[in-house]
């Protein structure tokens, strides 16, 4: 009897191991509202919710966990090969050669330049030609616009980094920077939340955001570490791309965008 039970038990155990879901961890920017951010200890946002929908479609083969991380640390971990993927970088193969490959696009963002009322009292129609001598805020670790980087290297304008949307909007309100470059929806969403806060300072309540220039249209991706090694890596990337394409065709992101715009 024991000889009959043992093979059956072993086969059952092996089947369970073979059928176990592969656990995958993807990291996301912890301070990029409304796309990916932490609020009241919860990781949330448009891309977070979209990838949670992807996780349902990837099951039972893959068990996907999403974790927040400071953007610059997330990039460093990709460069070291200690993590598989990070969202949502723009396509920057020359500046970040350690990211390879990129996923199917999550969404097409529109990167714009918001400036203070004082700055816009001077006619400014061409970027970067009409913005000389100004200080432009960007999020820490973000590579926003090639023309802006070139102009900064040439000393025509200054770029100043701060961690996240709120910090930059506060600096804009207090006139510590002249302009702020980032995705349009992200800036408007964060500014609205700051104004609505019970302890909002008068400078924030009085801040008027003037959209001075459209810098670029950028697809946002999951960026995968070229150095990260795992047997499941290629299959997971292909499966994720297929799922993201299905979600795109189904318009899954549209209600998430609409909710953020309310």
From TrEMBL:
Origin superkingdom: Bacteria
Keyword Signal assigned: yes
Keyword Signal: yes
Pfam families according to UniProt: SBP_bac_3
Domain called Solute-binding protein family 3/N-terminal: residue spans: 28-256
Signal peptide start-end: 1-20
UniProt keyword terms in alphabetical order: Signal
Record-given protein name: Amino acid ABC transporter substrate-binding protein
Source lineage: Bacteria, Pseudomonadati, Pseudomonadota, Betaproteobacteria, Neisseriales
């Amino acid at each position: 009897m024991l000889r009959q039970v043992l093979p059956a038990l072993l086969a059952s155990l092996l089947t369970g191991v073979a059928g176990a879901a592969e656990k995958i961890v993807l990291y996301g920017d912890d301070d990029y509202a409304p796309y990916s951010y932490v609020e009241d200890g919860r990781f949330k946002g448009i891309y977070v919710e979209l990838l949670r929908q992807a996780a349902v479609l990837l099951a039972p083969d893959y068990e996907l966990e999403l974790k927040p991380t400071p953007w610059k640390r997330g990039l460093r971990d990709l460069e070291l090969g200690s993590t598989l993927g990070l969202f949502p970088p723009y396509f920057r193969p020359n500046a970040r050669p350690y990211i390879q490959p990129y996923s199917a696009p999550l969404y097409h963002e529109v990167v714009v330049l918001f400036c203070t009322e004082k700055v816009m009292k001077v006619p400014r129609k061409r970027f970067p030609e009409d913005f000389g001598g100004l200080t432009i805020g960007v999020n820490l670790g973000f590579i926003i616009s090639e023309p802006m980087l070139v102009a900064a290297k040439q000393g025509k304008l200054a770029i100043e980094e701060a961690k996240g949307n709120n910090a930059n909007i506060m600096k804009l309100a207090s006139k510590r920077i002249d302009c702020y470059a980032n995705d349009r929806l992200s800036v408007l969403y964060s500014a609205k939340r700051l104004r609505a806060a019970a302890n909002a300072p008068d400078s924030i309540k009085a801040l008027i955001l003037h959209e001075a220039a459209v810098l670029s249209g950028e697809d946002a991706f999951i960026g995968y570490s070229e150095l990260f090694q795992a047997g499941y890596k290629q299959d997971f990337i292909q499966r994720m791309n297929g799922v993201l394409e299905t979600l795109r065709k189904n318009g899954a992101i549209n209600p998430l965008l609409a909710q953020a715009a309310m």
